[in-house]
């Protein structure tokens, strides 16, 4: 029977196919074709890549030895590389499939208030920062496809420490953390830490504590060698405020070139009073 998707059976040729798609994407965009015209089966391809990746992790799937191609740490990344060059589908099912494939297990590891409280720097780290109540914890929950991984609250400043979540750690990691048991096994090759930082600016905490957060943040940026990307969340209804500008300056001064800086606009679906825009507009 013919294969049902790119990744059925062997990953190497599928990765090459996704690279060809990525090369084709810009031409498709220039042609004016829409997502409806294309009807690309991204969800099926993502699920196929995830299934093949699971086989690669347990040893039941091996790359073709006759194909010289470097495989990504997770095969789903090759699909994402192709997707970003095509017109966006904005399909919730596809995004959910991506989330489930890339974030399979998540566990809270520790909350740190200074550098020595951080976990061992043995994997990459993705950091989320922004002013209080900008939606950091909600975004962390959405990205991990969990409802309450990071605590969300209407009261600004609920996050009071640098919260480290281990993604794709060894299956029994939570038991190891909770009970102190030594569990055999290793983390997956695509394991990383997701770090939820305190909301700066409007947090109802003493000035001394806000300054301590700022000092810790600066030291973290400069010394944490495993930091890979920093996501700065900005409320789309108001744009960057003074606190956002301060964060940007601090990032510009302290973030090493090896790490990426990404601005994420949040709450763009909320109605801005007096503008007649948003989901409540007539």
TrEMBL record:
Keywords: Cell cycle, Cell division, GTP-binding, Magnesium, Metal-binding, Nucleotide-binding, Septation. The keyword Lipid biosynthesis does not apply. GO terms for biological process: cell division. One of its GO terms (molecular function) is metal ion binding. InterPro entries: G_ENGB_dom, GTP-bd, GTP-bd_ribosome_bio_YsxC, P-loop_NTPase. Residues 122-282 form the EngB-type G domain. The keyword Oxidoreductase does not apply. Its cofactor is Mg(2+). It comes from the Eukaryota. CDD domains: YihA_EngB. PANTHER family: ENGB-TYPE G DOMAIN-CONTAINING PROTEIN, MSS1/TRME-RELATED GTP-BINDING PROTEIN. Belongs to the TRAFAC class TrmE-Era-EngA-EngB-Septin-like GTPase superfamily. EngB GTPase family. This is EngB-type G domain-containing protein.
